[in-house]
Amino acid sequence: MIGYQLTFFTQQDRKHDHMPLGEWLVQEARKLGIGGVTLIVATEGFGHDRKLHSAHFFELTDQPIEVTMAVDELEAERMFAHLKHESINVFYVKTPIEFGMTGKS
């Protein structure tokens, strides 16, 4: 299939509807019928503000989170419409890709 890889970057302490934004993105993608999502917890990173975000032994609230999904064009449109409807402000990367499964199903 031809579509997009959507990758959202956030951090553990960002919340929406009383849950971490990364987890919210995973749950909402599932509700929207997106075939698969991966949430990756990172050790450290920095954003446009150049502030370093990292996981500390005693404090994980500043830990960077990445949520990645492979979607077709309609799924991408549904996801971005949903984010707009929910007033979510999150950095993303949208990359054109070819995706599919190898072998027999």
Task: Using the alpha-carbon principal axes, give the shape.
Answer: globular
Considering DSSP H and I runs of 4 or more, what fraction of the residues is helical?
10-25%
CATH fold title:
Alpha-Beta Plaits
Number of strands: 8
The biggest beta sheet reads:
4 strands, antiparallel
- Total domains: 1
Give the helices and strands as they follow along the chain. EEEHEEEEHE
Kindly provide the radius of gyration, computed on alpha-carbon positions and rounded to a whole number of angstroms.
15 Å
Mind sketching the topology for me?
Elements: E1 2-11, E2 15-16, E3 19-20, H1 21-31, E4 37-41, E5 44-46, E6 52-54, E7 64-71, H2 73-85, E8 91-98
Antiparallel strand pairs: 1-7, 1-8, 2-3, 4-7, 5-6
From the structure above, extract its key features.
about 100 residues; alpha+beta; Alpha-Beta Plaits; four-stranded antiparallel beta sheet; two-stranded antiparallel sheet; 2 helices; about 25% helix; about 40% strand; globular
